Amino acid sequence: MTGSVDVGQLKLGWARAHMPVLEAIRARLADERPFDGLTISAVLHVEAKTCVLALALQAGGATVRLAASNPLTTDDDAVAAVRAGGVETHAVRGESLDAYRAGLSTLLEREPDVIIDDGADLVALVHERRRDRGRLRGSTEETTTGVTRLRALEKAGRLMFPAVDVNDAMMKHLFDNRYGTGQSTVEGIVNATNLLIAGKVAVVAGYGWCGRGVAARLRGLGAEVVVTEVDPVRAIEARMDGFVVRPMREAARVADLIVTVTGRPGVVRAEHFAVLKDGCLLANSGHFDVEVSTADLAKMASAHRTVRPNVEEYRFPDGRRAYLLAEGRLVNLAAAQGHPVEIMDLSFALQALSAEYLAKHGSALAPKVYPVPPELDLAVARAALAPFGVGLDEATGEQLKYADAWQSGTQ
Amino acid sequence: MTGSVDVGQLKLGWARAHMPVLEAIRARLADERPFDGLTISAVLHVEAKTCVLALALQAGGATVRLAASNPLTTDDDAVAAVRAGGVETHAVRGESLDAYRAGLSTLLEREPDVIIDDGADLVALVHERRRDRGRLRGSTEETTTGVTRLRALEKAGRLMFPAVDVNDAMMKHLFDNRYGTGQSTVEGIVNATNLLIAGKVAVVAGYGWCGRGVAARLRGLGAEVVVTEVDPVRAIEARMDGFVVRPMREAARVADLIVTVTGRPGVVRAEHFAVLKDGCLLANSGHFDVEVSTADLAKMASAHRTVRPNVEEYRFPDGRRAYLLAEGRLVNLAAAQGHPVEIMDLSFALQALSAEYLAKHGSALAPKVYPVPPELDLAVARAALAPFGVGLDEATGEQLKYADAWQSGTQ
Amino acid sequence: MTGSVDVGQLKLGWARAHMPVLEAIRARLADERPFDGLTISAVLHVEAKTCVLALALQAGGATVRLAASNPLTTDDDAVAAVRAGGVETHAVRGESLDAYRAGLSTLLEREPDVIIDDGADLVALVHERRRDRGRLRGSTEETTTGVTRLRALEKAGRLMFPAVDVNDAMMKHLFDNRYGTGQSTVEGIVNATNLLIAGKVAVVAGYGWCGRGVAARLRGLGAEVVVTEVDPVRAIEARMDGFVVRPMREAARVADLIVTVTGRPGVVRAEHFAVLKDGCLLANSGHFDVEVSTADLAKMASAHRTVRPNVEEYRFPDGRRAYLLAEGRLVNLAAAQGHPVEIMDLSFALQALSAEYLAKHGSALAPKVYPVPPELDLAVARAALAPFGVGLDEATGEQLKYADAWQSGTQ
Amino acid sequence: MTGSVDVGQLKLGWARAHMPVLEAIRARLADERPFDGLTISAVLHVEAKTCVLALALQAGGATVRLAASNPLTTDDDAVAAVRAGGVETHAVRGESLDAYRAGLSTLLEREPDVIIDDGADLVALVHERRRDRGRLRGSTEETTTGVTRLRALEKAGRLMFPAVDVNDAMMKHLFDNRYGTGQSTVEGIVNATNLLIAGKVAVVAGYGWCGRGVAARLRGLGAEVVVTEVDPVRAIEARMDGFVVRPMREAARVADLIVTVTGRPGVVRAEHFAVLKDGCLLANSGHFDVEVSTADLAKMASAHRTVRPNVEEYRFPDGRRAYLLAEGRLVNLAAAQGHPVEIMDLSFALQALSAEYLAKHGSALAPKVYPVPPELDLAVARAALAPFGVGLDEATGEQLKYADAWQSGTQ
Question: What is the DSSP string of A340-364?
Fold first, then answer.
């Protein structure tokens, strides 16, 4: 279906009005034009907030080319609006995997100077197709999953260009992964099912930043939350935060809902389906659709049908049913509107500043994974204080001096 | 007052029964005796749990000498019992500052091989008195405040021996600082005042690990919590956790209760007392009694009296009153029983393992601040799983392989 | 637009699968057919769950006629499916007020034996049009708003027939008003805006059962919640639950979001718009669209446009903007899918049992407002235990005896 | 031990400073002297707050005589101070049951005009000893347990005088039972044990107002809370509030801590001890020490000793241990300081107003259980607004009119 430019522009306008940090950056970029003559290829969930980022980069002088990072998460109206604004865009909601891959290929045809990636699919494609980095100054990456792939490349000695790990910036993972994923995941689950969260046994697989957010929000809506973890420190943290912590093979027996946010494949698999409680909902908010094993589901189920948009029923031979949401893809993007606007304001502000950093300094950097420079992280934090209504204290001179002294103790 | 050996032994028995991680370490140490021939000087809050640590080190072959890290936090019964067990101890509840300092001096007279410090007072004394490290293999430190002093020493090029930063071990700060300080601080405030937390405006100065714990527990008891911070990232985290964030000069006007947990001096000072709400309670849970400026209080108040144990009333010329709890010293130790036993099990397990590490390897280490070796941190976490009723998942082979691959992406 | 029977049937199937209490009642009604020969006219939000109720009543022998209780809350697919099932239905999403009123009129043309009302619009119409109750055995009502109108009729000596106050049944207001409204209201707000709840100042007007639910869920998503109340007891309850309690004229100055759940008109009005914070969202979850004064908004605004589906921007002459969600109608039904299925299972179970009660006993009852008979309330509670995974204790003989004794005291 | 008048007066001063509602009543009573010539016999937990009430009644002209309602909850310093103030008091901390009963008897020797009771022990004694009410104008009662006994007397046709049910006043049970019991119970448990609440399985028996408070506060401190109930509606409420709900025979197997707040005997008994998890803590916050069966404990245990003040260890033949806190008496009074001062301000304000009501009108009232007159309840609520920092809204004329109209509906 073709989107509407008018509707798309309203959507972009609403998003922009709630992205003050990125908006201030856009104004400066328009002034300084650090991207003049450069091409930026961005692979992202193409919806309104993403388009605000694309247009901010364009305002800074860049030729921006956009492709979808997920076949199910494109907003066609936003695509129409951003195209009307002059950004070449390859994304159609519900496109085939072939179309998805063709989008990525197209982005590589004319060589980008900077890549903005989400899940590292474009970066992986560069490494498959090319022998050298060419004019590429570097890439940025904003997911845990993508950073894991970048580090695997680096560890294997294969990484060809500098990559900025936006995901691990404080103003990214502390907020996007936790509060963004938390809110949008419950939104997706509720949208897809119209079911009650209160009184449900909700199992959250993984107690990383995303898992913490999802667990907190599910509890905030009244669920009894059970956490599964492979890391003992995180497991004890979850316990002291008041959650039950169990292996998945026990949790699956009592779960009304399972949400995976681990970044790992096969978190819910055959051995768990074998004991799953009848009627259990299965949702994923990890980047790739590998966490709930759809292969195992297909193998074990004797019947399969769609019962609502974004809800597929798998019926096992013994009569038990499992309900897979959004085909096991990101439920917060497929069945909801993705992260809240204010969260993406922070994440995309970091993306824009990191892209600017690579434009300026990338050519001089060795092919490694780099953190976001702390001063950029801090700049985003400072810019976010007023929008979030936060009043800061200032350290006194005495306090700063005290931190450097070792003599003064018990008095 | 002299403590009772019998009462002290019951107290130690209760503590030991709830410290399974340390107890398992004690059993191994008794077997392996890594401290044979060594002297360990420990400066800690001398109460039942500390004595369980001292006896565990003794069981490992050490001559243990103990002194108080705070004049107000000694439990005389525990002292009686640990002395009866053969540990030389310098601590009397309510002792004078001179007596406190004499205790520290005594500990240095016969040279210790390992120091266990809490606030770095003993370490500072070594650096004042000595010109070389002598036989000292190193020290361990478990407070944010003490680590700050160690790093100042290191930065100034003055540190004479290796120091293990126990405070920043995951199994320490994630639990002791957050859940330990959180619970014991509200316990101290409620004990001292018999007042209601629900419906109060409670200001928490600092949103580090301690501040998070205190804020969460005050909210858990029904308070409206206002956070003050100097760090913009932490400030926005506090905001998204649902707290109000304001500078202290605004917060003081509406506060029914202020708790400081910053590790910095003068957090509540003259400019805040000038606008403080009548009847406001002032409590500190940071290591030193510098966070609420008692000097400013004394200067500004026209009258001063003790109205309950651990509660002093300061009356300002305009009639407003402020109530200082526990003289501005650690309210959770002075007006309550310190951290819960299970928390100290984790922290003291790390202390024992770090002391063992220094005993074995300290002589070979350069004079720097070292983290707790990760395998020790993990060992404590694993040992704590069963006591906390936590069931862990295990990563599958496929999952471990996936984390090292970069090729597989959107499918 | 015309709905799809197929899609509608899937929606009804999903709802029915999560309404076990009503389903058990349906099975019994189908067996006993207490409604044989009777007509039931129901005015309700016509969506999937409502259609499951209509078909359950039909299974009990009734001729069921259905009309919308709100022009914006109809699900056309559900209408198609319930019509295909033989239920006469007058409801089209987005219908005009004239069409809405025509629906109500039609329901009165052929005289119903029992009325199921939601907001008391049909009951009011009966009282305007008719001089006697005719064959009407009575009506049931499930909203606070509708019960207020019924009591006003009763107080004025005008009520013509018995009315069962389903709203005040325990299994209704404790769950539907609190957990149902709570979850669906935040769902509606998030759907309409894609904004973040965490870190927002969210003002909840009214701390009745609905307000408690909304406040709890907004806090559960990280908001700073401010409550407004006119009742001093409820106000202090809100305070001790940790909420800030302020008059609306103060709250409006700091609100990022205002939600009204009071059942009263003009809760947010000219005097509040005059001081409203720029960008404030205005949402209502009370039954009628009177709580946010759209008349005052229209009068005071210098510009007005729709910026997203369900979001209208009002711009004041001084540049401030207010965003009205869902035209001030029930945001949880207009911008979301209404109450969660499991909640409506409880409420509609009470509706079905109350309708059955009126069918059997209504003719013999005087024209008054009646509570739901306690045994029906309890029957619904008992039937809900298993679906909610609740295990009950049983009072021992000794305990029952103790409750009747006065002699045994301190021993 | 004899208490100190000076210490007691400081304690009373602190309490009075935080009881503004009662203080305003005291000032009016001192002016109007409605109790001139009357004797008020009060059986209450005799600590500082109670003494503030006694002195307020005395200021109103009454001869006040005070006895302990529980042998373990007396504060000897407060006794010394209130005696010095002229109130005849029969209470010594730790007194024998005989001494306790003698105190009650003494209060009946000279006939009281008004009785203030707590648990109905004095009322029961009147009914055992006397044949008529004599000059007794009536009694007030503030516990669920006492009201149950009064209603049993009334039902049996035995009640001799009017009794005001203070417990069910809104400003009593909504606050005292919920927030008062909640905070003080966790305080008592933590004081008695120094154990961590976070990460524990805490079982709360009973989800009445007290149980809700205890469950909320235990969760607020990080526990996994399991509720037991005999009432299906309350059970489902607990479930939707996010708690696990199980029969005690299942809950006891996993409990680290059990708190009883049911008002019923034998809530934890032989069948539960048989399966109790090793090390489980047993605490009671119901009025009488009957909820945990100490008889069954004594019968089943093979060894018994006190391991800390307020902690008794019972060892079963199979080696499992149970720890009974405060002998199964009110843990919040025995191991802590009872309800927070501000809570007792509300409850005792109701007591004072109810006593005044009986003094004025009791002689004319039939022997029944009466609610607190609503205007007194409301007066207390209004007086509490300012101390709790609550700002109220006022209903507009339009709103009041709307509530009485039935015509206006969907527009």
Answer: -HHHHHHHHHHHHHHHHHHHHHGGG
